[in-house]
Automatic annotation (TrEMBL), chains A, B:
PROSITE patterns xref list: HTH_TETR_2
HTH tetR-type domain: residues covered: 5-65
Protein name: TetR/AcrR family transcriptional regulator
This protein's UniProt keywords: DNA-binding, Repressor, Transcription, Transcription regulation
PANTHER family on file: HTH-TYPE TRANSCRIPTIONAL REGULATOR BETI, HTH-TYPE TRANSCRIPTIONAL REGULATOR RUTR
Gene3D superfamilies with a match to the protein in the record: Tetracycline Repressor, domain 2 (1.10.357.10)
Compositional bias of kind Basic and acidic residues: 243-266
InterPro entries: BetI_C (IPR039538), Homeodomain-like_sf (IPR009057), HTH-type_TetR-like_transc_reg (IPR050109), HTH_TetR (IPR001647), Tet_transcr_reg_TetR-rel_C_sf (IPR036271)
GO MF annotation terms: DNA binding
């Protein structure tokens, strides 16, 4: 295995950084080329249009998510549910992750108008709901969960954590770009912070509530409620080494970025 | 009371129609002027920039939501929760509502970069979470709900229905615009429909699941589970007459549009 990332991985990391820095609508092929130190003509050699490159990027992100889910496929079902919920949790000051998710949310708004983007969104939705449904089904079979409508429960869990993330990122004033940030944040009373009266970010509050309100009642008698903290730890960048072990990613130099991304999205 | 809508209401309905037709990024002041049969210079006389007009529009939508919530403030707490959940439910073929919400979602992605937009989003978030928390608190006081963390429950309910709506609209191929729709939908196997294997739209599935999984366990003994169908009916355009009674809206001619919008959104 080489320590050099492949050209394709380098380009995908460039897309990731360009989306974070410029957003979906404003990121240009030149921005992406700059972010991965390639020429714009090389990018165009591989990807005719920005749309094509972004579809390839969505494919890359979702494939990465499939891999991360697969890595935990043999963990106990209750722990896997906590991992799934924990995957969506991030702190209010996770500026890079927030900027990336805002760009992805912009991209998602293109779903109704662009069939190729929509195909990727549908694939991601099936991955997310399918993963939760599989975890539930295997837990029911193993006797650790009560019998329950797995598809309905999966839709609820996915909607809750996705909704919490959308609210956390759109209500945040932490992304330091644009006219809104002139004047400086935190000068006395914060009138624009969304969740400023809570001591927990939206994603964490909702993941914890989901675990106790929706997951706990599903547990069979005697099954211990899984730890959200453990679930978060299992799904965060620190397990990048584990991904490396899977032998699929060789971009050691870029791992910081790729690991930081580290979540399904859309 | 006059049957003529005020100029401000006409402009707001123009914004609504322009957002639906063109999306947030592409709607121009000219599009909005065309949609409300005003001159572009009149629009600019009232609103310096498109940003200013859109902030006024968000304010208008949220004020409308406050009014709709207020209309039901005296209903029994359990029914009010079903109304809240039902408010977010719409069918997969509600093309206009979907197009409007896609435009609002685009607008929401501007939150981190634009303080004035963010202020409105924060106001809407406080309205939504505050409404659910108030309903829960009054139900606990009345003895119809068990004692529960009202803020956490409110965050969960809001995230779930908002997340379901975002997923329903972004996964949908029903908005008939752009290259994605060329070729025609429903020609044989649908490979891009998001929730095509379900017989219920995402918002309905999640609202029902939330009602049974999160709300029902909160009910005190003997309190009947409220009907989602009734909740939906209470919050849909058919109650536009009720709004008219409140004496605040006089745009009878435009009511179809305004009523159709009929939901908080931000």
């Amino acid at each position: 295995m080489s320590d050099q990332p492949s050209a394709a991985d380098e380009i995908m990391n460039g897309v990731y950084r360009a989306l974070r820095a410029h957003g979906y609508a404003d990121a240009t092929m030149q921005d992406i080329a700059d972010e991965c130190s390639k020429s714009k003509s090389l990018l165009h050699y591989h990807y005719d249009t920005k749309e094509e490159l972004l579809v390839a990027f969505l494919d890359h992100v979702i494939t990465d998510s499939e891999r991360r889910i697969e890595l935990h496929a043999d963990d106990p079902p209750a722990e896997r549910l906590a991992q799934f919920l924990g995957w969506f949790v991030f702190e209010a000051d996770a500026v890079d992750r927030e900027a990336f998710h805002i760009a992805l949310l912009e991209l998602r708004t293109q779903g109704p108008f662009n069939e190729r983007i929509r195909e990727q969104l549908v694939r991601s939705d099936r991955l997310l709901r399918g993963t939760v449904a599989d975890i539930l089904a295997s837990g029911i079979e193993a006797g650790v969960f009560r019998d329950v409508d797995v598809d309905e429960t999966a839709a609820l869990l996915v909607a809750a954590v996705d909704g919490a993330r959308t609210r956390q990122i759109t209500l945040s004033g932490d992304v330091d770009v644009g006219e809104g940030s002139i004047g400086g944040p935190d000068d006395g009373e914060d009138t624009t912070g969304g969740y400023d009266d809570a001591d927990s970010p939206y994603t964490r509050t909702v993941a914890e509530a989901t675990l106790r309100r929706v997951v706990e009642p599903l547990l069979a008698e005697g099954v211990e409620i899984p730890s959200l903290a453990d679930g978060i730890a299992e799904m965060t960048p620190e397990d990048a080494g584990e991904r490396e072990d899977a032998g699929e990613r060789e971009d050691a130099g870029e791992r910081g970025d790729a690991g930081e991304r580290g979540d399904v999205d859309e």
